[in-house]
Design a protein that fits this description.
The complex is a heterodimer of chains A (about 260) and B (about 375).
Chain A: E1 17-28, E2 31-37, E3 40-42, E4 46-51, H1 57-65, E5 72-77, E6 80-81, H2 87-93, E7 95-98, H3 110-118, H4 124-127, H5 138-146, H6 162-175, E8 180-184, H7 192-205, E9 210-214, H8 218-224, E10 227-232, E11 235-240, H9 242-246, H10 249-256, H11 259-263
Parallel strand pairs in A: 4-9, 4-10, 7-8, 8-9
Antiparallel strand pairs in A: 1-2, 1-3, 1-5, 5-6, 10-11
Helix pairs in contact in A: 3-6, 5-6
Chain B: H1 3-20, H2 27-53, H3 60-77, H4 87-90, H5 117-141, H6 147-166, H7 168-171, E1 184-185, E2 188-189, H8 195-216, H9 219-229, H10 231-236, H11 241-267, H12 277-290, H13 295-314, H14 322-336, H15 340-360, H16 362-384
Antiparallel strand pairs in B: 1-2
The chains are: A alpha/beta (about 260), B mainly alpha (about 375).
The complex binds adenosine-5'-diphosphate (ADP) and magnesium ion (MG).
Chain lengths: ~260, ~375
C-alpha cells in the first residue's frame, strides 16, 4: 500500500474539531471497507470526501451515523463518544444524514416530512397529546424556502422530481438542527441547473453549519470546498486543498489520473 | 365537499345509526349486532397497529381472548353456586384438597383477585397490554419486522390457546368458562339481549373511535405513519422507533382486550376458540375489507363481513363454503382494493369534488388557480435572481 500523504492543512483545522474519528475500521467478512480512518472536522467546516467507486465513502458515513457498527475505532462528537449508541441517539446528539438515494416519507406531503423531521420532542409520551399544525411554522417555511420547496409544501413526496426529493431530504436534515450534516452525493442524478443550485445551497450552509459531503464531480468539489479528503480502498489517501490534491502523485495514480480530472 | 367534511359526516352518520339500531331490532338481533360491534372494536385495534404503524399482528385473538377470560373469571365467581370454588374446579379436585380458592387445584390461587369484578375488568385491559409490551419489546428491540412479526404473534396466540386447553382444572379447558353471572355494576345489570349490553358496547366503540382518532390525527399518528413508511429514516431523525412500535402494539392489545371483555358480556362465555388462528386472521380480513388505514372503514368492514357471514351461515348452500369465500375476499381486497371500502369512499368523494368544482365554479376556480401559480412563479424568479 502507498504511504498516506498528508499535505499541510494549516488552513483547515484551527478550532476544536466537532467530529473526530480514531482508527475507525469496519470489515465485512474480513474485507476492510473502511480502515484506520482518522478524521477531524472543524466546527463550521465544509469538507468534501472524494474517492473512486467502492472506496468506502458511503460506508464511512454509515459508520458516522450509526447505520453500521465499527469493527474497531471510535467516533467522537465534540466531547462525547457516540460509538455504538444507536442511530436514533446519534441523530439526537446532532448528526444528520442524507443518503445517496433520497430516503423520504413518500406517502406523506412535503410539509409532513418537514414536520416529522423538525419535531425535536422525539419520545413517545411527548408526542401523545401533541397536535400537528395544518400549516407550516416559521422554521418550516424558512427551510422550505432555502431548498426551493415552498411552492410544494402540500404535495405528496411521491410526486416530486428526483432533484426535489434530494432537496427534500436535505431540508429534513436541516430541520433536525444537526451539529454536523453528512451528505452522500447530494447532486447525484441532478440536472446541471439543479446541481448549480445545490452548490449554492452548500456554500450557503457553510459557516453556519458543519457539513461533510461526498462528491464525485471535481468541478463541483472545487466550487464548494476548501479541504478535500481522498479515500482509496477504505483508507484516507490524502487530505488538502483542491490544488494540493490534484498535484498529489499518489492521488493522481489512484484516482484522479483518468477521466475525472481531465473533464473537470 | 372536501374529503375531511365527508369523513366527519360519515362518522356522525355511523354513530347515529349504531345508536338508533336497538329501536328497530328484536332482542336476537340486538345481541347479534352488539357482537358485531365488538368485532368492530377488534378491527379498530388491527387498524391502529397495522393500518397506522405497519405492524401486522396475526395474534390479536390472544389479547381478545385474554380480555374475555379475565372478565369471565370474575363473572364465574359471581355465580352463587361457584362460591367459594367454581364447579369446574370441584370436578378436578384431589380427594382431600382444601375447598378453597387458595388451593383447590394447582394454580387456583390465581383466581383470588378475580373475586372482585373491578379487578377482572381492569385486568382485561391491563394484562393484555403488559403481555403485548413484553412481546413487543423483545420483537421490536431485535428489529423484527414484516412477516416475522406476523409469525411470532401467531405463535404466541397458539401458545395461549394451548395453555388454556391443557390446563383444564384451572381454565375450564376446551369448554372454557360458560357458567357466568350477568355483569352487574352498581345494581345495574347488563342484559346481553337487551339494549343495556348493546349500549355498553356501542358507547365503548364510539369512545374508542374518538380517542383513537384523536391520537392518530395528532403528532404520534404522524410519527407512526413515518415509521410505517420508512423505519430507518425515522431513526436517523432521532426517533426511537421501537418504543413507538411497542406503544402502539400495546394500545392495540388493550383495545383487543377491551373488546374481549365486551364479548364476554354479550356472548356469556369465553372459550379457547377466541384465541384460534382463524379468528385472529378474520380480524385482519375485517380491517382489510373496510380499509386498514381508516378506523371507521375497519369498523364497517367488520360489520359487513360478519353480517354477510351470518346470513351465509343460515343458508345450507353457503354455510360450508363461507370460509372459502372469506379467504377469496381477502385475496381480492389485498390485490384490488388495498384501501378497502374506505379507499373507494375516498376516491368517490374526491372524484365528485373535482367534477363539482369543474362544473359549477369553473371561471372563478380557474383564475384563482392561475393567480396562485403565477404568484408562485414570480416568487420563484424573484428568489432565483
Ligand atoms: N453491508 C455491506 N456488506 C458487505 N460489503 C459492503 C457493505 N457495504 C459496503 N460494502 C463494500 O464496501 C466497499 C465500499 O462501499 P461504499 O462505501 O459504498 O463505496 P463508495 O460509497 O465509496 O462508492 C464496497 O466494496 C462495497 O461492496
Ligand atoms: Mg457511495
Amino acid at each position: 500500500m502507498n504511504a498516506v500523504h498528508r499535505p499541510s492543512k494549516a488552513e483547515t483545522v484551527s478550532a476544536v474539531p466537532i467530529l473526530r474519528t480514531q482508527k475507525l475500521t469496519v470489515r465485512f467478512d474480513e474485507f476492510p471497507a473502511v480502515r484506520d480512518v482518522d478524521l477531524s472536522i472543524a466546527d463550521g467546516e465544509l469538507r468534501v470526501i472524494i474517492g473512486a467507486n467502492g472506496a468506502g465513502k458511503s460506508t464511512l458515513l454509515d459508520l458516522l451515523c450509526g447505520k453500521t457498527l465499527p469493527s474497531e475505532g471510535e467516533i467522537w462528537l465534540r466531547d462525547r463518544n457516540i460509538t455504538g449508541i444507536g442511530e436514533a441517539a446519534i441523530a439526537r446528539s446532532g448528526v444528520g444524514r442524507k443518503f445517496q438515494t433520497p430516503t423520504v416519507f413518500k406517502d406523506m406531503t412535503v410539509l409532513e416530512n418537514l414536520q416529522v423531521a423538525s419535531n425535536r420532542r422525539v419520545r413517545v409520551f411527548q408526542n401523545l397529546f401533541d397536535r400537528v399544525k395544518s400549516g407550516p411554522n416559521d422554521k418550516e417555511v424558512a427551510v422550505a424556502e432555502r431548498t426551493g420547496l415552498l411552492g410544494s409544501l402540500k404535495r405528496k413526496a411521491s410526486e416530486l422530481s428526483h432533484g426535489q426529493l434530494q432537496w427534500l431530504e436535505l431540508a429534513m436534515v436541516l430541520s433536525q438542527d444537526p451539529k454536523i450534516i453528512l451528505l452522500d452525493e447530494p447532486a447525484a442524478g441532478m440536472t446541471a441547473a439543479e446541481t448549480d443550485k445545490t452548490a449554492e445551497l452548500l456554500l450557503d450552509l457553510a459557516g453556519s453549519h458543519t457539513v461533510l459531503v461526498i462528491e464525485h464531480d471535481m468541478a463541483f468539489v472545487r466550487r464548494i470546498c476548501k479541504t478535500i479528503t481522498v479515500m482509496h480502498q477504505g483508507a484516507v489517501l490524502a487530505e488538502g486543498t483542491a490544488e494540493e490534491i490534484e498535484g498529489n502523485p499518489a492521488v493522481i495514480e489512484a484516482y484522479l489520473g483518468s477521466a475525472t480530472l481531465s473533464h473537470a | 365537499m372536501t374529503y375531511r367534511t365527508a369523513s366527519i359526516i360519515a362518522y356522525i352518520a355511523f354513530f347515529a345509526v349504531v345508536l338508533a339500531l336497538p329501536l328497530v331490532l328484536n332482542s336476537f338481533w340486538t345481541n347479534r349486532v352488539a357482537i358485531y360491534l365488538v368485532y368492530s372494536i377488534c378491527a379498530i385495534g388491527i387498524s391502529m397497529s397495522w393500518g397506522y404503524a405497519g405492524i401486522l399482528s396475526l395474534g390479536q385473538g390472544l389479547f381478545f381472548g385474554m380480555g374475555a377470560y379475565m372478565l369471565a373469571m370474575s363473572l364465574t365467581l359471581a355465580v352463587p353456586e361457584n362460591n367459594p370454588v367454581p364447579q369446574l374446579m370441584l370436578l378436578n379436585m384431589e380427594p382431600n384438597a382444601v375447598r378453597d380458592l387458595c388451593c383447590v387445584t394447582t394454580g387456583s390461587f390465581l383466581w383470588i383477585p378475580f373475586r372482585s369484578i373491578a379487578v377482572g375488568m381492569i385486568a382485561g385491559i391491563v394484562v393484555p397490554c403488559i403481555l403485548a409490551a413484553g412481546i413487543g419489546y423483545v420483537m421490536f428491540k431485535r428489529r423484527t419486522t414484516g412477516v416475522y412479526v406476523s409469525i411470532i404473534t401467531l405463535a404466541f396466540a397458539l401458545i395461549g390457546q394451548l395453555l388454556i386447553i391443557n390446563n383444564q382444572p384451572l381454565t375450564g379447558g376446551f369448554n372454557g368458562l360458560a357458567d357466568l353471572a350477568l355483569l352487574e355494576i352498581g345494581g345495574f345489570e347488563f342484559d346481553p339481549y337487551g339494549p343495556s349490553a348493546y349500549y355498553a358496547v356501542a358507547l365503548t366503540l364510539i369512545a374508542v373511535i374518538l380517542l383513537a382518532r384523536y391520537m392518530l390525527t395528532g403528532r404520534i399518528g404522524q410519527v407512526l405513519k413515518a415509521i410505517r413508511e420508512d423505519e430507518a429514516r425515522a431513526r436517523y431523525l432521532g426517533y426511537d422507533v421501537e418504543n413507538f412500535k411497542v406503544f402502539i402494539f400495546c394500545v392495540s392489545a388493550g383495545v383487543a382486550g377491551l373488546a374481549g371483555m365486551l364479548f364476554t358480556i354479550t356472548s356469556e362465555f369465553a372459550t379457547p376458540s377466541l384465541m384460534a388462528t382463524s379468528l385472529s386472521i378474520s380480524m385482519v380480513i375485517w380491517a382489510a375489507t373496510g380499509g386498514r388505514a381508516s378506523l371507521l372503514g375497519a369498523c364497517v368492514g367488520a360489520l359487513i363481513v360478519n353480517f354477510v357471514g351470518s346470513l351465509a351461515s343460515e343458508s345450507a348452500t353457503f354455510q360450508p363454503v363461507w370460509p372459502i369465500i372469506l379467504g377469496l375476499l381477502f385475496v381480492f381486497v389485498v390485490l384490488f382494493m388495498p384501501n378497502g371500502i374506505a379507499g373507494i369512499f375516498k376516491a368517490f368523494i374526491e372524484r365528485s369534488g373535482r367534477t363539482e368544482r369543474l362544473g359549477e365554479a369553473r371561471p372563478s376556480g380557474k383564475t384563482e388557480r392561475a393567480d396562485k401559480s403565477e404568484r408562485v412563479q414570480t416568487e420563484l424568479t424573484a428568489r432565483e435572481a
